[in-house]
Specification:
The protein is an alpha/beta fold. The protein has a single domain, classed as Alpha-Beta Complex (Nucleoside Triphosphate Pyrophosphohydrolase), CATH 3.90.79. The chain has helices spanning 44-56, 76-81, 134-138, 140-145, and strands spanning 4-13, 16-24, 28-32, 35-37, 60-73, 87-97, 112-119, 131-132, 150-157. Strand 2 and strand 3 (28-32) form a beta hairpin. It is globular and about 45 Å long.
């Protein structure tokens, strides 16, 4: 098993955050931050720019690393069936939208049904809106308010 580096983007415009709307059998409807896996020899900045363009159709510029967290699956079957996803490091970047013109997304995630701008006030810790990774959703305001990266800890999953 290897550790998979992933990037996630927090893109804010007019008090709204760009999120991927997702749906699957296990979780139902939820949101996730645009982003995905880092390719070999690709910098984290290059990965976040590429992933945002592929999934949302927007050009972005990473401004700063905002948070870091990891997910580790403890279930042996999950580890066997999804070795590239069993241990992931999430590098969360605050990104600047370079152009409000959106192109057609070219490579959406398997569970992604679209992207939409969601009012930040709807994403409070007590909100019914589910944002994954959960550590980001639970600490979103702290991440946005901070000037230094925040380590959100390790999340062990079955």
């Amino acid at each position: 098993m290897s550790i998979r580096n992933t990037v996630k983007a927090l893109i804010i415009k007019d008090n709204k955050i760009l999120l991927n709307r997702c749906r699957d059998e296990k979780f139902g409807d939820y949101f996730s931050l645009p982003g995905g896996g880092q390719n070999k020899y690709e910098t984290l900045h290059e990965a976040v720019v590429r992933e945002c363009l592929e999934e949302t159709g927007y050009h972005v510029k990473p401004v700063r690393l905002a948070a870091l967290c990891e997910t580790i699956f403890t279930n042996e079957e999950s580890r066997k069936n999804h070795p590239n996803l069993a241990h992931r490091m999430y590098h969360v970047f605050i990104c600047e939208l370079l152009d409000s013109q959106q192109s057609t997304p070219t490579e959406k995630d398997a569970m992604q049904v679209g992207s939409e701008w969601v009012d930040i006030s709807q994403l409070t810790a007590t909100s019914d809106v589910r944002l994954f990774p959960m550590a980001v959703g639970e600490n979103l305001q702290e991440i946005l308010d901070g000037t230094a990266p925040v380590f959100l800890g390790s999340d062990y999953k079955d």
